[in-house]
Amino acid sequence: MTPEELVIKLIRRGINVSPEALELLRDLDEELLDRIVDRYSEVVVLEERHVKQFLESDESDVEPPALPSLPDEFVIERDPTNLGVEGKVDEFVRLMQYRFNKLREVLMERMHVEPLPIGMINGGNRKNGDKVVIIGMIMEKRYYQDRTIRVELDDDTGSTQVYFPYGNEVWEIVDRIPVDSVVAITGVITGNRVIGEKVHLPDVNGGERNRAEVPVKVALLSDIHIGSKYFNEKKFRKFLEWLSSDEANDVRYLIIGGDLIDGIGVYPNQEEELLIPDIYEQYKKAAELLQEIPDRVRVIYIPGNHEPVRQAEPQPKVPKKYVEPLLDALPDMIMLGNPAVFRVLGVRFYVYHGRSLNAVFKLVPGLQPVKPRTVVESMRWLIKLRHLAPIWGEHPISPESIDWLLIDEVPDVLHTGHVHVYGVGEYKGIRIVNSGTFEEETPYIRSLGIKVTVGKVPIVDLSNLEVKIKEF
Predict the structure, then answer these.
(1) Which of 87, 135, 430, 458 is the 20 to 30 Å CA partner of 413?
(2) Dihedral sign (CA 143, 144, 150, 152)
(3) DSSP assignment letter at 229
């Protein structure tokens, strides 16, 4: 590996390197290099002293611990890894092109049609009155005084304006579709524009979803916020006691969808709301609590926006240096990134912390205020648009080489959190679950007018995807 390639590799992992450290690293084999990078993943600049410290320690001679073997009943399908970009404009262009091309393929397969490239609408032998099918990304929506909606639709050949007059079912659908969505439109050419007649979303087909052959159950949690003054430890301990009871004997998995701890410096003046103002101590407290989980229950844990990982999605799993107490307490715990896709006994789970729901509530009409019904409806929109963060620019998204947030495979269960309001529903056979919170109302949540749902734990039966709410 040349020095230039080595520098690029480190930058993509978010690490700068000093010239002295670079000189030491260039002679190491790739396996040892990766272990050094993992060891110092949190430093801003990897310096000579870091490399020498590692090479002089026992760590360089010891094989890294093997990952716990996963039983056949648990299969990871997607876990964000090898993340890291340089922040160049072409990386953002690449990400949006990847998203567009994948969703265009989904639409073409669903509609069994070859769309007209948008750049050909005003060329060739096209004339007024011709009916066309086009697929593009919505770049802009504008409303006129008569409530006509004008949509600017873009593909890789050009852009056009599509008009939807007020007063029909299509208008109501377009009104709720946010910008950055990829859609198919059937319409009629009129001059240099298109009058829209139908709109098609990527969506999913209905049908029977995967089920387990045995009645194994999965408990879904998120937004526990250990370390916050508002964490309801009493209710959480009641949940842990129940998990060890005979009544919960068929619960074999526990999925934590982010914000296990409250973190440090997540928002202004957070320190005033912390009971435990140290991230390592928060994880020690989490380990003290979670060690009460019985051995028959396997824990899967992804980060949210309060964990000590980057804010931009997709997020990597929480670094080992923070969670060592948890791993000591729960050696079988499975650490994954956000979002993660996996199967339990054949049932496919999409687990996403849910930060994008803020934008969906904000920009899709009819979803305020936030309550159990609207939480479910907002999650339905993620499925309809086939993307976990369909609206660009409302929260940080990293332009990775692939779009980890696409819903390219059909889930059996979609599990989110973040908004602190539970919701359980169904969409075309997919079970939709937002797992609420174990944190009481904070001043920030109060300012949003959200009524939090504390201590309600959804329990999913994998044999039929039925969900029961246990309240503690």
Answers:
(1) 135
(2) negative
(3) T
Strands (E), 247-286: 251-257
Helix or strand or coil: residue 292? Answer: coil
Q: Which residues face 226 on adjacent strands?
A: 261
The helix/strand/coil state of 76 is strand
CATH level 2 (architecture), domain 113-200: Beta Barrel (2.40)
pTM of this prediction? 0.84
- Closest C-alpha among 444, 293, 420, 410 to residue 357: 420
**Neighbouring residues of 10: CB distance < 8 A, sequence distance ≥ 6:** 16, 17, 37, 46
For the four alpha carbons of 434, 438, 441 and 447, in that order, the dihedral sign comes to: negative
207/465 Cα distance (integer angstroms): 14
CATH number of this structure's domain 217-471: 3.60.21.50
Pinpoint the alpha helices (H) of 67-162. 89-111
- Count of residues in the chain: 472
Cis amide bond preceding 303, omega within 30: no
Q: Is 210 left (phi over 0), alpha (psi -120 to 50) or beta?
A: beta
Quote the tokens at residue 445. 């949540």
- Taking residue 427's Cβ as centre, other Cβ atoms within 10 Å add up to 20
Cα(452)–Cα(442) distance, integer angstroms: 9
Q: Are 118 and 124 in contact (CB under 8 A)?
A: no
CA dist 295 and 330 (Å) reads 9
How big is the CA angle at 39 (ends 261 and 314), to the nearest 5 degrees?
Answer: 50
The C-alpha atoms of residue 394 and residue 189 are separated, in whole angstroms, by: 34
Q: How far apart are CA 241 and CA 239, in angstroms?
A: 5
Write phi, then psi, for 343 (nearest 5 degrees). Answer: -115, 140
Residues whose CB is less than 8 angstroms from the CB of residue 1 and which lie 6 or more positions away in sequence, other chains included:
9, 26, 30
Give pLDDT, residue 259: 97
Q: Which two tokens stand for residue 98?
A: 């990847």
Give residue limits of the domains in the chain. Answer: 3-61, 113-200, 217-471
Based on the number of CB atoms within 10 Å of its own CB, is 19 exposed (0-12), middle (13-18) or buried (19 or more)? Answer: exposed
